[in-house]
Write a structure and sequence with these properties.
Immunoglobulin-like; disordered N terminus; 6-stranded antiparallel sheet; Jelly Rolls; 6 domains; mainly beta; 71 strands
Amino acid sequence: MSKSRSRSRLAVLTATVVFGSVAIGLVILPTRAVQAVSDLLAGWSFDAVTTTNSGQTPVISAGSATADSGVLSAGSSFTGFHTTSTTTWSNPVGNGSAKSVSSNNWSVGDYYQFSFSTSGYSAISITWDQTGSSTGPRDFKVQYSTNGSGFTDATGTNSTYALTAQTWSSSGSPQSASRRTLDLSAVTALQNQPTIYIRLVDNSVTSIGGGTVASTGTGRVDNFTVSGTATSSTPTPTPTPTPTPTPTPTPTPTPTPAPPNDVVISQVYGGGGNTGATLKNDYIELINHSSAPVNLSGWSVQAFVSSSWQITPLTNFTLQPGQYYLVQESQGAGGTDNLPTPDAIGSIAIPRDVATVALVNNTTALTGNCPNAGAAGIVDLVGYGSSCFEGSGAAPTLSNTTAALRRNNGCFDTNDNAADFQSGAPNPRNSSSPTHDCTGLTAYGSANPSTVVQGNSTSLTVFVAPAQNPTSTGITVTADLSLIGGSSTQSFGGSGTLFTFNASVPANNPPGMESLPVTVADGQGRTANTSILLSVLPIIPDHITISQVYGGGGNTNAPLNTDYVELYNPTPNPIMITGWSLQYASATGTSWSNKQPLGGVIAPGNYYLVALASGTNGSPLPVTPNISGEINMSATTGKIALVSNSQTLTGDCPLGDPNIVDFVGYGTGATCHEGSANTPAPSNTTAIFRKNNGGTDTDQNGADFLAGAPNPRRTEPVIELGPWVAGTDPTTDDNTIPYDASITVNFSEPVDVDPGWYNINCVNSGSHNSATFAHTSDFKTYAITPNTSFQFGEQCTVTIFKTTVHDQDLDDSGPDTDTLFADYTWSFTVVGAGQPAPYPPSVHLTMGNPSNAVADINQPLNYLMMKPTYALSYNRDKGTPNWVSWHLDNTWYGTLARVDTFRPDPAVPSDWYRVQAFDFSGTGFDRGHMTPNADRDNQNRIPINQETYLMSNMVPQSPDNNQGPWAALEGDLRTIADAGNELYIVSGPYGVGGVGSVNGNTVNTVANGHVTVPASTWKVALVIPKADGDDVSRVTCSSRTIAVLMPNTQGIRSNPWQTYLTTVDAIEQLTGYDFFSNLPPAVQACVEAGTNGVNPPGTSNQSTNTVEDMGVTVTLQALRPNGNT
């Protein structure tokens, strides 16, 4: 679609004056004042960087250390240095982007270094994202240099800084707490320099977690940008007559595309506040990618939603060149992060799957689902999932975690939505964000298909956004195709904005991922560089493939009663798959907990059959499977991964995980697949087959598979296998493990263990083999609970010994058929200490100890446990707390994402039964927190939050109790705290016998009688205004108390918690506990008699004396609820 816009242009006057046989061409340009604006000089997103060594200095693939954006990116570079020769450099996910740069083995003086030009610019400032692990370096300083040898410490805000252990993700909005900006405009030595150097230098031995930096501790950097202001506008030279020789035939010029619009839509996001979203709001982002300011007064953004155009007017704002403008739209119920301060606010609920969004130079509602641009005043238009779009196709659809992003930071505009936009993590920018110069020549390349088998061909395409001032003419595109057997100066055909070349890859071309360099040039002497990524695959796959998938087993009309996955070895070598796993997720799911452990060896050319869940319809599998499991796959759509270990995948599309051997997204709706499309959809009566009997793998699910009648094959002999470790918690290299963690080991089959079957050793605290362990009823899962806790930030290693683990079957005739095939060893890192609790542990009993519990093992039914997070009275015989007491105000909670760390409490004496995380599994009861996780989710206190997952804080709660009114009350108590109050809360179980979700029967105990199921749960809370000083003295008869007693049963999920209101007195009479006993008796009496803040008068603890048998008048002073007498 063409665009129209109203704007003023500088006049360009041309003339030709002829003197004899010589013609003189004149171009007369008017002059104008140019307002100084900040330009992006150089920026590193690291999305193309690859580090390849483990030495002091990273080795980075050619060109990828150069800044990937900015007007002065040429000649820029990134490097680093560590004094330790064994430093490991890597590329983990970035802060809302694909990659960052990370390294370990930090010492004081080690650094990251960026070099770049500031020629023609002053007012330099830098912005960057930085984080690290809990054992990585915390304290850094910024240094600068103009020669690369003598460095000066910078001054000002963020010239020295302390890192926090922010968790980065390639999806969702960036962690704002990781971002820092340093204004260097006062340092004149950095202005107008051909090269300057900036270092981020490790400044102390203190780790982020508060300990000492460990060799395994990592530091990570991303999104480093340099901004500056041009020192002056370039004056227009006096026109100089240019002699023109005798005219010669002029070649036909390359067609010149129309100049881009001044302002374009740079981002669209519609997942705000939805499930899985980090941001609370939808938004539309604009950028001025011209060289002149544009006033937005009277303009609007509009979206076609539910058959009509909805409007958000823009403000009277002059948008400078390269400046962003953020329009906040509707807010959902979820999300944790606010947008940056918006420049305009609307209420449009932007759809995620299909919509058209327009930037309009008026506020008149558009008409029709695809209005005429010229008549409607449309300045820019973006369509996704719809039939109305610019150019050849629509932009990518949106999701809760992805936005449609205009390429090159919003600058790339060829009037083709399909070419100009890509899907990525939302990254909203407003008018205060760093600007981005859009006037240069830019391009990007792609291959279709992006993976090609040796001996086949692919179409290479380069999309070009012409430069401005003046507009590019005579554009040429040249690529170096020598890596795939082609010319090193291959010209591409095309014109304007689209250039292509069809490349054939020789059959003997080495396989691997190739980056093909591309140079774009225009007739004005400007150039731009990009690359085309192409994966060359071997003719015969070099790995085990998923050769067949069938998920309709046992369904209606199914020919077979069992789901299955078939594997094939196309290689010339036998491959051991012991310790591997199949992992399944639903079409749109993010959980990969459906895992099937694998074992054995697959010989060359053999098929290996894995039987999965069964149903009632159809015949049994015609061949005996190599292994059987229980994954229940969808018949029509889903995602299945073959993984070279047992670590659980994460996210809805984990294709970047290096442990994935093969991946299949099948049927309509699967949100992840290899290549550009899912496989054809199977059904109850059809399976999907990898072509060439399992031997075709071009990493294109859509092209590699076809559907047909299920035909399970197995040529690999069925043999007896010994047990193996099928999973652990913590997993390998986990780095946020609780300091009082248990070690859980999942085996592939039921096993028995010998004494001394494990070894746990930590760098600082040494051996932790003094422990208790328990197992599930099927003997497949064992949990080890050390009696002493780990130290914060230390690394620990666990070994399970080969000869001490035995399977329970009797077929042990072959080697390694009874025990593990080898010792199993892995390591993890304990979480850093984080910030301390805002108050000492004694705060939780400020108002009293309800049962006078004591920390004495001779009092097993009333055993006091004091923690930074809460205090509790534990009952050994019931396996639950009698009560849990905690203090609550808004300093205790924050925005930490929930991460379940359910585990036994090692503070329970070792000769008592320690309730296990798996003890409630399959019972129909939730592991019900007494102190809620969300009451302790301050992002700077991870260990505090993790303490809420100890099983000593749990009781078996019916799901409708726990997830219904109980959860609602928890949320409302935090709302009360948000209003400037603090609360003292006590909760616990009462009685015996609850009804869970399994069969509707009353259950008295779970965990083989170790844990009592209560008949009800209760909670009492005392509310006072938040203040310093003696909280007891601030409680009055008007203070609000809240008390509830909820039945531990199903069917109450939708009931308001107020349904179960009672008094504190009533809970005391029920339980025998004395709550708030540290209050003055009279005050205690009136608040405990109140219902949700309505307190009656009271006369408690007043008395008088009389002489026996003599009449007397007795007067008692009633305490009024307002505290007066």
